[in-house]
């Protein structure tokens, strides 16, 4: 397949989305300004506003990109599964996702999005992303609906464990909550 060459403006938009993911992951939707994203991207706030006329549009675009990366990661995990049973494929998808969120920006963007879900376009983006993830898990694994539901619920539990830094050393309750959950270490910056 021939390599697709992006135009300068498409390259800039891609760089901006990566910067927006990083900025919004750090301080959330409400705590991040267009100027914050522009600073991370190394461009002017006016140029950010030219590409995305509102902070809401920029956040939704960053969140949509995050879900695209999540979906690509889950599909790659399914493709690499050693065990082609439904449970084996879901496990491989979960392992791939755990590796993706070791870089905390993707995890934190999703968490911040959930806290801003009272904003209709953000809630819509979350639902669209969740729908795509659920469909991919179902189609790729051929698992039952309840197995897919547990997979999604388990992922949300993983988010809670990682964001609150719970580990089994916190006591019996933490061992129960974290049992069987694995997360790669956060890569150094």
Main beta-sheet strand count, sense and barrel state: none
Oligomer: single chain
**Cα separation of the termini:** 33 Å
**Number of helices, where a helix is a run of at least 4 consecutive DSSP H or I residues:** 9
* Name given to the CATH architecture of the domain at 55-178: Orthogonal Bundle
Task: Please tell me about this protein's structure.
- With 189 residues, the chain is mainly alpha-helical.
- It has a domain at 55-178: Orthogonal Bundle (Tetracycline Repressor, domain 2).
- Helices cover 74% and strands 0% of the residues.
- The protein is built from 9 helices and no strands.
- The chain is globular.
- The two termini are 33 Å apart.
- The model has no long low-confidence stretch (mean pLDDT 91).
